[in-house]
Write a structure and sequence with these properties.
This protein has 514 residues and is of the alpha/beta class. 32% of the residues lie in helices and 24% in strands. It contains 14 helices and 20 strands. The strands form four sheets. The protein has a nine-stranded mixed beta sheet. Strands 14-13-12-15-16 form a five-stranded parallel beta sheet, with helices on both faces. Strand 13, helix 7 and strand 14 form a beta-alpha-beta unit. The two termini are 42 Å apart. 40% of the residues are buried. It binds xanthosine-5'-monophosphate. The site of xanthosine-5'-monophosphate has 14 residues, from loops.
């Protein structure tokens, strides 16, 4: 078990909880998000150096509001409460929290806030700056032993502190970017109040996880399904570094990859002495998909076939002790919301096969956020094109060729998509657009090239900006860049004579077309 100084973020249902965790990690301190119902014994076993109570949608004074075991205040561990978390500290320790009846003390949005510079939490901050407020309740009376350490023009209790006991509360949200000195406030809490030393760096994580993987695996064999995506690639590289030949990566090339992708993945992993199995299964996948038009059906076939190929390879390898997966922390936090309607059944290479015999699953990236996974990939020497990859769906180009698939259509799409991606990179737009790709529609139209008539496919270009891929806006690519892409594709890719740009956001559309 890897031991780092740990901050526990107790989740009371706020919107920004993941953001708090990311800010803490960015400050070089490890943290975990736990539900507020987690037992005190479990929390204690993690030996936290501090707690952060998050915001939440409730009012602390209502009967059914989330509460906290009061014994947490006796642990001698510093606590920072944010919004609801702040009110909860006040309420639990004898203060009075009430609904703001008028505009007095009810605040929403950017708010000028005045800080007490003597409070450790606000050390080094200017005497006033902008914070982000979002609260309808306020602390009418602070508990005994607490001082008011920040105020706004309408609220006298924008922050409270009992410095002797290490308890701090802020009504505003230091974790959001709108709060001008938010990161400094979190940094002060971690370093000046909790005594953090900053032992969470990717180099450190790399070294300690190599030791821990070696301990867990012993002489055993590990199998990993490598998709070429960021998570599975970094997972493979980490395991390769830790256990070399004991690792077998099975890379199922389903023939639905982008141009040169299969070779790039293989080349990247040659530097390690591991067992690398590339299964060229293009024919097998294309024959299963032949004549299939319905997107969900395509996805099901690919998901199923993928598992079958993987299982066959696993059986050839023989007795496998561990199956490795590239699960990352947002997958862990976000799992468990099972009520949403199925829009698309996502196929992830990590899907567990039924009949591979293994004892245990190992997930070496489980505590990491995506940007930390990328940092780790760099620390391991993975090439930049693998580390900074945009998301690529498991079913690959099968869901970017609309309607039934043929190898010819896939090849046309591969060429066009490669030109599109090169031109976006040449225009230095890769940082501003979060996902961009070409789609081969099943519409053919008449064109004229040279002196002849053409009757070829229409290609759609898709590019979106998004923070979470749950919602997205279409990217405003400059016309001159679109023009360059269009003429280059039409001139260089046989089979396409018309190009359209998708200007639909998500919702109502989705990012992929199928
Ligand atoms: P949609 O099209 O649902 O896509 O708006 C949201 C994001 O998910 C990616 N995507 C997938 N990723 N397996 C994956 O691992 C899949 O089956 C899959 N389908 C869509 C899509 O590229 C976008 O980033």
């Amino acid at each position: 078990m890897i031991q780092h100084q740990t901050i526990i973020i107790l989740d009371f249902g706020g919107q920004y909880n993941q953001l708090i965790a990311r800010r803490v990690r960015e400050c070089g301190v490890y943290c975990e998000v736990k539900p507020y119902t987690t037992s005190l014994d479990t929390l204690k076993s993690l030996q936290p150096i501090g707690f952060i109570f998050t915001g939440g949608p409730n009012s602390v004074y209502l009967d059914d509001a989330p509460q906290i075991d009061h014994a947490i205040f006796q642990l001698g561990v510093p606590i920072l409460g944010i919004c609801y978390g702040c009110q909860l500290i006040a309420h639990s320790l004898g203060g009075q929290v009430t609904s703001a009846q008028t505009d007095i003390a009810r605040e929403y949005g950017k708010t000028t806030t005045y800080f007490d510079p003597n409070c450790k939490l606000f050390h080094g901050l200017p005497s006033n700056s902008i914070t982000w407020m979002s609260h309808g309740d306020y602390m009418a009376q602070v508990p005994e032993g607490f001082f008011m350490t920040a105020h706004t023009d309408v609220c006298p209790t924008a922050a409270i502190a009992n410095e002797c006991r290490g308890f701090y509360g802020v009504q505003f949200h230091p974790e959001v970017n709108h709060t001008e000195h938010g990161t400094e406030i979190i940094h002060n809490f971690l370093y000046k109040i909790c005594g953090a030393v900053g032992d969470w760096t990717m180099e450190d994580y790399l070294n300690t996880s190599i030791v821990s993987i070696r301990e867990t695996v012993g002489n055993g064999k590990v199998l990993l399904a490598l998709s070429g995506g960021v998570d599975s690639s970094v997972c493979a590289a980490l395991l390769a570094e830790a256990i070399g030949k004991q690792l077998t990566c099975v890379f199922v090339d389903h023939g639905l990859m982008r141009k040169n992708e299969g070779d790039e993945v293989e080349t990247a992993f040659r530097k390690w002495s591991i067992n690398f199995v590339r299964v060229n299964a293009e024919k097998r996948f294309l024959s299963k998909l032949s004549g299939v038009e319905e997107p969900e059906y395509k996805r099901k076939i690919i998901g199923e076939e993928f598992i079958r190929v993987f299982e066959e390879e696993a059986r050839k390898i023989g007795q496998v002790n561990f199956l490795a997966q590239g699960t990352i922390y947002p997958d862990v936090i976000e799992s468990g919301t099972g009520d949403a309607a199925v829009i698309k059944s996502h196929h992830n290479v990590g899907g567990l096969p039924d009949c591979v015999d293994f004892q245990e699953i190992i997930e070496p990236l489980r505590p990491l956020f995506k940007d930390e996974v990328r940092l780790l990939g760099r620390a391991l020497g993975l090439p930049e094109y693998l580390v900074t990859r945009q998301p690529f769906p498991g079913p690959g180009l099968a869901i970017r060729v609309i309607g039934s698939l043929t190898k010819e259509k896939l090849d046309i799409l591969r060429e066009a998509d490669a030109i599109y991606r090169d031109e976006i990179a040449a225009a230095a737009l890769t940082q501003n657009i979060h996902q961009y790709f070409a789609v081969l529609t099943n519409t053919r139209s008449v064109g004229v090239m040279g002196d002849g008539r053409t009757y070829d496919y229409t290609l759609a270009l898709r590019a979106v900006t998004t923070s979470d891929f749950m919602t997205a806006d279409w990217a405003r690519i400059p016309y001159e860049v679109l023009e360059r892409i269009s003429s280059k594709i039409i001139n260089e890719v046989k089979g396409i004579n018309r190009i359209v740009y998708d200007i639909t956001s998500k919702p109502p559309a989705t990012i992929e077309w199928e």
